[in-house]
Design brief:
Length: 772
């Protein structure tokens, strides 16, 4: 496949190889199936909720019913006295650091003096039966002085401090260009983005097992085990080597998978009782405990000339961090840096704030920061197009970013940035046919089968959006991963602490070793903290950093394998190749199998991968903060019932900058999953709160899109232009369609209704058009 090859699909699923190209059976470029695919589809995969141990106790956590309150007293006597209860712990029983946090240690293990959000842990119980544990937790008497919560982030600036660290987490005043410049055409807009939950379908669960040396082992579906280990050790007052985190049963993740708010009480209870302790969170506890996407308020003013070329962008971005900092600083940096989108903007002035409130904590969810600003700047582009009388796609084309252009942070885009090519691909892809009005096809109408809609009230709209995300960590984050590759008796083993969260790392690791060593049978060892760290499973890290470490280790083993043969035949190892389990020389003189060359030996190597460093944004928002960027264009087609306000997404055409296709089937699945998550953010997913309290913490009140809600997804082009600084040249795949699809859907609803549509998810009243 050429570097800029377009790969269209008929069913919007798996890119097909060209006729002259036979897809490989293994190695890079093959659609190798995940090892756990069969077990997961058959229901035999051992998830964390399936864990068991001899002498098991059960845990339950008491959570605060208020969003803001002072704790007057905590009385655990009734719970302690209950038969079957083995231990009750509160803030007074934490032997180490009382607060934790992956980025900022500002979140208490248990609330001590104040409750800062609904559902904050107050105490935890271990008992011999789960029902006993829950009853004992409910029996703990807590006296609260309920306080007025601060739930409006705009009011947080003037409110009394909600935390000893203050209410302002971070402020970034980006300044780029001349503030006095103005354009011939100016449009303004106010946009609001709701609170999306990562909504892990698998139950969040864990098992803590005490060790004879006074330490503890935590068996959880962690996505960042070494960070979790260090935080737990500090909380438990132990050295890190006395805490071990074993990753088990990860069902998938679209953000930080596990809530440390129950992992840490679990370990404390195991250390106190000397028994294994298990906790499986209810769906309500998951909604109350883990972090959500930042609700965001955005104010924009775009300046353009009469030809539609952008002159200046002014913006204010306010992220609601909830009660604790979590990933808010990083999310704000992404929001501010990408506030103008993948467009050339010669002058930009963006102010961003992340503030604490008494709302549920916000944190890492795919495309954090970038998704919120994409919805806003694309709304602005639609307004500009309407005011100038230009086609929305043409306006975007005139301003598309390209390699060599500058971001408003002053950083040069050095990676491939085929933004115009992506936009042209979705613009030129044939539109879907219009639905029939026959009664048997009523299900095609917005509202679904038996809906109240009438065909005459349905309007079709077509909208566009361009999105971008950064890959790996940013602003000076030290990105590094370590991997070991061992080969013996024709079998290779990869040891790397990169957690498989559904992004396909274990499959990729197998493909890398197959490609490099010509060995078909490759196993990836289970992950625990006895292995060197590989970092969190976010921002495409493991494809780049951990995949790069595996590749380097495999190449070192390859050299060990080929060096004796090369020496024997008087040639360099570069003149030997490995394919299909055979080693051959360029001239055909040497031909042997990998097994014969191994001769019973065990070969192994350990390697690291560390990308080039980045730097923090300075006091004016300038700096080379990002290792790499990925881009996406989406065209949305929607049908809107303008009387009822119901929206049906008919089709999403996707063109994406992927660098290099490593596994076609896996890549298509990641893109489709990201697009579908974006559909939820656009239309249904909003974790609603009243005075800081989550209204419906369940999957009845929180509406995830189902298979019936998923539209036709057409992957019309995958641009393979390799990023030379990335291993294999590949780019992150799943976050950028999440960022782009909500904005495209909103754009299509604007086209169908003529309404501004400035809020996500789109409420029915925003799509209603008054008749007559």
């Amino acid at each position: 496949m050429s570097n800029d090859a377009a790969t269209a699909t008929v069913d919007g699923a798996i890119p097909a190889a060209a006729p002259e190209q036979q897809a490989p059976a293994h190695g890079i470029g093959a659609s190798l199936a995940p090892v756990d695919a069969r077990a997961k589809t058959e229901g035999t995969f051992p998830y964390a909720a399936d864990l068991w141990a001899e002498g098991l106790l059960w845990a339950a956590v008491l959570r605060a019913p208020h969003a803001c309150a002072r704790i007057v007293s905590i009385d655990t006597s009734a719970a302690v006295a209950m038969p079957g209860v083995r231990s009750v712990v509160t803030h007074a029983d934490v032997p180490g650091d009382p607060a934790f946090g992956r980025r900022v240690a500002d979140r208490p293990v248990f609330a001590a003096e104040f409750v800062r959000h609904h559902g904050e842990p107050i105490a935890a119980v271990a008992a011999d039966h789960p029902d006993t544990a829950r009853l004992a937790a409910a029996a703990i008497a807590v006296e609260y002085e309920v306080l007025e919560p601060v739930t409006d982030p705009e009011k947080a600036f003037a409110a009394e401090p909600l935390h000893p660290d203050g209410n302002l987490i971070r402020h970034i005043p980006l300044q780029y260009g001349d503030p006095e410049v103005t354009g011939d055409v100016v449009v303004e807009g106010l946009y609001r983005i709701g609170r999306q939950d990562p909504a892990p379908i698998g139950a969040e669960a864990g098992l803590a097992v005490p060790r004879p040396d006074g330490g503890v082992e935590l068996y959880t579906a962690s996505t960042d085990p070494h960070s979790d280990r260090d935080l737990a050790a500090a909380c438990f007052g132990l050295e890190p080597d006395r805490v071990k985190v074993v990753v088990t049963g990860v069902p998938g993740a679209t953000g930080d998978r596990e809530d440390l708010g129950f992992q840490l009480p679990l370990g404390l209870l195991a250390l106190r009782t000397g028994c294994p302790v298990k906790l499986t969170a209810t769906r309500e506890e998951s909604f109350l405990g883990h972090a959500h996407r930042h609700p965001t308020l955005l104010r924009y003013r775009h300046h353009a000339d009469t030809e539609g070329r952008l002159v200046k962008v002014e913006a204010q971005i306010l992220l609601d961090a909830g009660a604790y900092a979590e990933a808010s600083s990083e999310s704000l940096a992404a929001a501010v840096a990408f506030a103008c989108g993948p467009y050339v903007v010669p002058h930009a002035f963006v102010e961003g704030w992340a503030v604490r409130t008494n709302n549920p904590p916000s944190g890492h969810v795919r495309g954090e920061g970038a998704m919120q600003v994409c919805a806003a700047y694309e709304g602005q582009m639609d307004k500009l197009a309407a005011k100038l009388g230009l086609d929305p796609a043409e306006l975007r084309m005139r301003n598309a970013l390209a390699t060599g252009d500058l971001l408003p942070t002053g950083q040069t885009v050095t990676c491939p940035a085929p933004v115009a090519e992506l936009l042209a691909a979705v613009r030129d892809f044939p539109l879907p046919t219009l639905p029939k009005d026959a009664p048997e096809d009523d299900w095609l109408l917005p509202g679904g089968p038996e809906g109240a809609g009438e065909p005459d009230a349905v309007r079709r709209g077509v909208g566009y959006a361009l999105g971008m995300v950064h890959m790996l960590g940013a602003e000076g984050t030290d990105e590094v991963s370590t991997a070991t590759v061992k080969v013996q008796d024709g079998v290779a083993t990869v040891i790397c602490a990169a957690v498989e969260t559904g992004q396909g790392f274990t499959t990729l690791a197998r493909q890398i070793v197959q490609e490099t060593l010509g060995i078909d049978e490759v196993h990836v060892a289970p992950v625990d903290t006895d292995q060197p760290p590989a970092g969190p499973a976010t921002h495409g890290r493991h494809t780049w950093v951990s995949g790069g470490a595996v590749e380097r280790a495999a190449k070192m083993v390859r050299t060990q394998l080929l060096q004796p043969l090369a020496h024997k035949f008087g040639m360099s190892t570069e003149l030997l190749q490995i394919a299909d389990g055979k080693i051959t020389s360029y001239d055909g003189v040497l031909s042997t199998t990998v097994t014969e060359a191994m001769d019973g030996k065990e070969l192994w190597a350990t390697a690291q991968c560390r990308p080039h460093p980045t730097e923090p944004l300075d006091e004016t928002g300038q700096g080379d903060a990002f290792v790499g960027l990925a881009f996406c264009a989406i065209r949305a087609v929607v049908d809107v019932d303008i009387e009822l306000g119901s929206v049906r997404v008919v089709e999403l055409a996707v063109a994406q900058d992927v660098g290099r296709i490593l596994n076609p089937r896996q890549l298509a699945a990641r893109i489709e999953a990201g697009v579908t998550q974006g559909v939820g953010a656009a239309l249904t997913e909003n974790l609603r709160t009243v005075r800081g309290q989550i209204r419906h913490p369940d999957l009845t009140g929180y509406a995830l899109p189902t298979a019936l809600d998923a539209p036709d997804i057409r992957i019309v082009k995958l641009v393979e232009e390799r990023d030379v600084v990335a291993p294999f040249g590949a780019k992150a795949a799943s976050a950028v369609p999440v960022v782009t699809s909500p904005a495209a859907i909103a754009s299509a609803v604007r086209a169908a209704t003529g309404r501004p549509v400035n809020r996500l998810p789109i409420r029915p009243q925003a799509a209603v058009v008054q008749q007559g």
